[in-house]
Each structure stands twice: as structure tokens, then as C-alpha cells.
Amino acid sequence: MTTTAVTTAPPEDRSRRLLERVSRARELGIVAAILIVFAVTTVKNHAFANGASIQQLLAGASLIALLGAGETMVIVTRNVDLSVGSVLGLSAYVTGDLFVHHPHAPIYLAYALGIGVGALIGAINGAITTLLHVPSLVVTLAALYIIRGIDAVYANGKQIDPTSIPASFQKIGSADFHNIPYLAVLVFVIIAIVAYAMRSFRSSRDLYAIGSSPEAAALAGIPAGKRVFTAFLISGALAGLGGVLFIAEFATVASTGGAGYELQVVAAVVVGGVAIFGGSGTVVGAALGALLLNTINQALVAAKVSAFWNQAIAGALLLAAIAFDRYVALRVARALRTGGGAQDGD
Amino acid sequence: MATNALSISESQRPSPIKGFIRWETALFLLLVGTIVFGTIASPNFLTTTDMFFIGLNIGEIAIMALPLTLIVITGEIDLSVASMMGLSSTLLGYLTQQGWNIWPAMLAALVVGALGGALNGVLITRLGLPSIAVTIGTLTLFRGIAEIILRADSVSEFPTYLTKIGIAPIPHTQIAYSVGIFLVLAIIYAVVLHATSVGRSIFAIGLQQEAAFFSGIRVKRIKFLLFVLSGVVSAFAGILLTFRLSSARFDNGTGLELNAVAIVLLGGISIFGGRGSILGVVLAAAVIACFLTALTLIHVSAQVQNIVTGALLLLSVVVPGAGDTARRLRAWLARRRAASAAAATIQTAAVEASNVDVLAGARVRDDVSPTQTDHAEPTAGGLPVEGGGIADRGD
Q1: Residue B48 near residue B175, CB atoms below 8 Å
Q2: Nearest to B306 among A145, A224, A277 (CB)
Q3: Which residues in chain B show pLDDT less than 50?
Q4: Which of A64, A73, A76, A78 would you mutate first to test chain B, the one with the most B CBs within 10 A?
Q5: d(CA B133, CA B129)
């Protein structure tokens, strides 16, 4: 299958155009799916289209989309970060605890603390993965449990009380501007920045190169270790920021906060068209994936289908997404092969 | 063709085997150390009743770790095992609630296990999807189906002659039923893996999938059957768990995939595939069981035990690569020294053409991170290109 028959000069930009078209089609497909789910549910239950409901849709998807941006950077390099849920939980608890002990702590300090905690853990994950040549799946799976354990020891059975979280700090998480939550606006801005960087910066293009072909990237002189380390660092920092926003949104957290988020994040990213074996996918797609999953969840509630169905549907959707991606990848490969005039590899 | 495959795996074997004996010896010493630690920590450790409880907490997980071992050796992974446990537990409870006799209900749970495993297998081998993504998907899917079936209910009306496995050991011994079953299964697995052609095929697939394929091994069929096996055995472990807890709930066994993966990797099974032994897995299960029990005896909470399990998991992948890491570090330091020496020469002496060359050479090499320049196998930040289950190797 993977014969290098394509090398007989298929016009460079021709194949790129095809790939670009496919990935754009993918994002449009998700948008279409979101709109269809939204429309169908609205027909069944008119309340689904009102402001409060849309606000819930956006707010619910925001944290997953934020974590998905970091996760995309990691997965694109053919790695995975399963520790994001635990990092979010620890960061949320530490940030909350700051306000418990110092009720008048400046808000920027809370952000710095949460992001710092996340970045530190991301750096550790990245260092172990790149310096020791250990598969990130195992490293971050271990980190998932170790950090959750540290969180539990730190929290010691207590939970952060909403009364100790200052109202000015909660504003970013709970207030809204004409039904558009500040939280969603902030996440939108961050995703726009990351998306721009992933598209235009040379160092971010390196991430794709590493994921597409590690050998080729090494031969091209790309410092894979540095780049992968940075991807983990950013993923950790964004998960840390997610923790700060979590406590700002819900104002309470126990040591189990954010448990299971890693699965939702991976599901959103993969549904959003990021290939789990690296090399392709966009941050915007991941964010749309998060929005789609949350829209489906809310639609189930609005259609009075029991919430017990959420998990099964998320799982089925994840499987459908990777199967669909595989199908498209095969079609593209075939189109490139015949389009380039090369012999069939099989 | 078949002899060809054997010679390939044979030629690659000596070094892993040598490494292996050491790994299992290390595990054995670790086990002895853990037992000594436990005995010092609490006088109750290793008393007859405690032997029973040590096994009770690990039996089902260890049983799930056996088929997972074979899957990891072929270079794939199955993260859905604990969810299948929960699904089988839920189904057993639901069918009993609907008035089914317990035996057909158990059979139904096993059949669902086989179907779930077959779903994993088809998606991975026939569609060529990466096993990590597929089994994260089915992890969510199976648990979700369990949640749909039983919702927030729990079922606890099971025959007492079955639920007694949670409170009584096998008669005339101090061995928990699940541990007894695990030991019998481990012997069968060891024979199949280490003494039959099927076992050799499994190693061959993990070492070089393409070579295995071209020497006539039915790679896809073997992988498919391993996932079905994993489904059935996980469902069986779910049945045991249900009887032991005397309770069927949809969230039974949540998170146990970590423990199963930890046992497999601590047992010396390479996450890149192709290496490992059942003896290592049995020893690893014993180490983890003894260690966690000792921690419980000295009143270390379950959350801290998670930290310990996670750390063991991490160690089990870091330690085997320690030699490589040290070598890379030395090479890197040497290059650093060469680079700084060259820089010093430049600063003090007149700029000679040869020195410029040295400096330029050193700079170029320094730019390329040391992690790639001297590492033979192509990896991207630790994930293997041709192994570890994340790379697409379906075709």
C-alpha cells in the first residue's frame, strides 16, 4: 500500500490543493452537522434556539475546545496527552485554594498560578517523552493518575466553597454579553491565535512535519525533541488555564474536578478531523468537534432523550469519525496516485 | 517461507532474551523487597487471611492483563478492557433482574464480550484504524451502553454460592478464586505464547509485521482473534467482579485499564511490541498486589496508591531505556564539549580555516537536537514509527 509510487512528479501544488480541499470540506462538514442537529432539535423543541440555550452550547464547549487546541498540537506530532483532565483538576483546585487562603489575591496571580501549574506538568511530560524516548501514551497515562492522586492528597477530601471565590474573578466564567459568554469569547480569541500560529509559523509547521514522517523531519534538520517538548508545554499550560476558567465558571471544585475530560477532549479532537497518527488536522476543526459533541449532548436533553445516552453516543461518534477519516484518506491516496500518473502500488 | 520467519525472529531474539532474564530477575527481587517492606510495615502482612485479601484485589485485573499482554506483544493496545468489564457486569445484573437464570445470563455476558472484542478487531484489522483510537472510542462506547442498560440502578440479587467468591477462598487453601483462575489461565497462556507456533507468530508480528506477513503468518486474523479473546476474558473478569462485589453497576471497574496496562508494562512487555513473557506479567501482578496491600495496611489512601501505580507504570518504561538514555546523554555531552572547545579556539586564536570548519560542523550538529542524531530507530518524541499501536500499520 505505502509504496512510494507517487514520486513520479505529481504537480506539487495539485496534491496540496486536493489535501487542502479535503480538510476544508471536513470542517464544513462538521459545521453542517452542527447546523443539522441544531435545526432538527429546534423543530422538535423551540426553546433550543433561544439565547440561554445557545449560551449553554457555547459555554459547555469552551473548556473542551480550549484543551483541544493544546491536544491538537500534541496529536499532530504523533503523540498524545492524556493528562489534560487531571491537570485541569489540579490547576482548578490550586487556584481555588489561593482564594481560600488569600481572599484578596489579585486575579492575575490566579491566572499565573493556574497556567504555571499546567505548564510545569506539561514540561515534565514533554521532557520525559522527548529526553527518555518513552511513548507519550504511557507517560501521560501515568501522569493522569499521579496528578489526580496529588490533587486528592492536596485537597484532602475538602472542596472549594463558592463563597470563597471573589465575584470579580467569577465574572469571566459566568457573565455574558448578549448571550455570548465571556468564556467563549476568550477561548475563541485563544483558538484564533493558536490557529494562526499553527498555519503560519515555521516552528508550528514543523509539528506537522514531525507527525507526517519523523524520519523525513529528522533528515530535514527539524529539532523534533524541542518542538514536541514545546507542544506538551503548551498543552499543559492551556489545560492549566482551563483549570482557572473551570473554577471561575463553576466556583466550586473537589479533587475529582475535570475527571474524564481527557476522553472528551480526544473525542472532540478526533471528531474534528485531527488524525490520531499525526501529521494533519487543525485547531479550528478540534474546536468545531467540541462544539458538535456538546450540541449533540444538549440536543439529547432538549429532545428528552435520557442523559444516560451521552457517553455511548460520544463513543460511537468517535469511532465513526476515525473510520470516516480513514475512508477519506484512502480515497485521497487513490486520487493522488491516479492523478499523478504513477502506477498502482498494490 | 515459514522457516524464513523463524530465522528472522530467531536472529533478533538473543538480545531481548538476555535483557529479559535480567528484567524478570529484577522483578523477582522487587517482589521479595515488597514482601519484606510489607512484613516490616505491618505484622499482619503475609498472614494467611491477608494472602487471601492480597489476591482478592488484583485477581480480575490480572486476568484481563493476560490477553492484553498478547495484544501489546503484537504492537497494538486495548484500552477498552475495563469498560467491557463494566458492560458485562451491567448485562449480568440486568438479565438477572429480568428473571433470567444466572448461567444463561453469564453466557450472554461472555457473548457480548466476544462481540465487543470483534468490533475492536474489525475496526483495527479490516479498516486499518489505529488500535489506540479505536479502543479509546470503545472505552467510551461500552461504558455508555452499560449506562443506558442499567442507568443509575444497581443489582445485587445473585446466588450466594457464586457471591461467596468475594468472602471465601478456594476450600483448603488461602487462594482467592480469581487468583486461582488467573494462575491456571497464566499457565495456559504461557504454554501457548512460549511453546507453540501461534505464540511464535505473535512475537513475529510484533517484531516485524511485514516480514511476518510475507512469511505466511495471517497477521490480521491473529490480531482479530486476540481482540475477540480480550473481549471475552474482560467480560469474564467482569462477571467475577460482579460476584465478588455482589453488585452490578454500570461504573464497575472504571479506570482499571490503567492497572491492567501497568501490570503488562511492569511485566517487561515492550510497548513497541515483540518482547515479553507471561512469567514477567505474573510477577508484576504479584508485585503490584503486594505493594498496594502493604500500603493499605499502613493506611495509605487509595488516591496515593494511584500515584504509586502511576509511578510504577512510568518506571517500567523508563528503566528499560535507561542504558540508551545514558548513551545518548554521553554522546550529547561529548558534542557539547567539542562545540565549546571549538568556540574557545575561535575566540583566542586567529581564525584558521580548519577551526571555522570545526565550529560550523559543531553548530550544525548542535542545532539538530541530540535526540535524533545518534538514535537508530526512527521515533517522534518517543512514539515508535512502526510500533506502539499508535502508528498505522494495518496494511
Answers
A1: no
A2: A145
A3: 1-17, 19-20, 358-395
A4: A78
A5: 8
Q: Return d(Cα A245, Cα A114) in angstroms, integer.
A: 9
Top CATH class of A5-339 equals mainly alpha
Q: CB distance A78–B265 less than 8 Å? A: no
State which H helix or E strand residue B380 sits in. Answer: strand B379-380
Residue A210's contacts (CB-CB under 8 Å, 6 or more residues apart) are: A77, A78, A217, A222, A224, A227, A228, A278, B380, B381
Exposure b/e, B283-321, CB count within 10 A at least 16 = b: bbbbbbbbbbbbbbbeeeeebebbbbbbebbbebbbebe
Closest CA to B291 of B319, B262, B249: B262
Out of B301, B371, B391, closest to residue A277 by CB: B391
Rounded-to-integer distance, Cα B14 and Cα B11, Å: 7
pLDDT band at A8 (very low <50, low <70, confident <90, very high): very low
pLDDT score of A102 = 92
Cell numbers at B295, concatenated:
500500603
Closest residue on chain A to B258 (Cα): A141
**pTM of the predicted model, to two decimals?**
0.81
Q: Does A310 touch chain B (CB under 8 A)?
A: yes
For residue B297, which amino acid is it?
L
Chain A from 187 to 226: CB within 8 A of any B CB: 210-211, 214-215, 217-218, 221, 223-226
- DSSP label at B123? I
Residue type, B308: V
Mind listing the pLDDT tens digit for each residue in A208-222? 999 999 899 999 999
Total residue count of chain B as it appears in this document: 395
Alpha-carbon span B167 to B157, nearest angstrom: 16
- Strand, coil or helix: what is B184? helix
CB contacts under 8 A, B 22-81 vs A, are: 77
Which candidate, A9, A2, A1, A32, places its Cα nearest to that of A342? A9
B326 CB within 8 Å of a chain A CB: no
First to last CA, chain A: 5
The pLDDT tens digits of the residues spanning B77-120 come to 999 999 999 999 999 999 999 999 999 999 999 999 999 999 99
Q: Which of residues 112-141 of A touch B (CB under 8 A)?
A: 126, 128-139, 141
Report which residue type is found at A241.
L
Question: Which of B77, B311, B380 is opposite residue A214, by nearest beta carbon?
Answer: B380
- Which of A146, A277, A308 is nearest residue B148 as measured by Cβ atoms? A308
Q: Do A315 and B395 touch (CB under 8 A)?
A: no
Judged by CB atoms closer than 8 Å, whether chains meet at A319 and B137 is answered as yes
Query: Given an 8 Å threshold on Cβ–Cβ distance, is B310 in contact with A134?
Result: no
**Domain covering B2-321 in this structure, CATH number:** 1.10.3470
CB within 8 Å: B371 and A224: yes
- In this structure, what C-alpha cell is assigned to residue B228? 475477540
Closest residue of chain B to A307, computed from CA coordinates: B148
Q: Name the grid cell of A107.
A: 486575579
Q: Is A256 on the interface with B (CB under 8 A)?
A: no
Q: Which three cell numbers stand for residue B144?
A: 455508555
Q: Phi first, then psi: what are they for B352, rounded to 5°?
A: -100, 155
Q: Is A143 on the interface with B (CB under 8 A)?
A: yes
Q: Where exactly are the structural domains of chain A? A: 5-339
Phi, psi values for residue B152, rounded to 5°: -90, 5
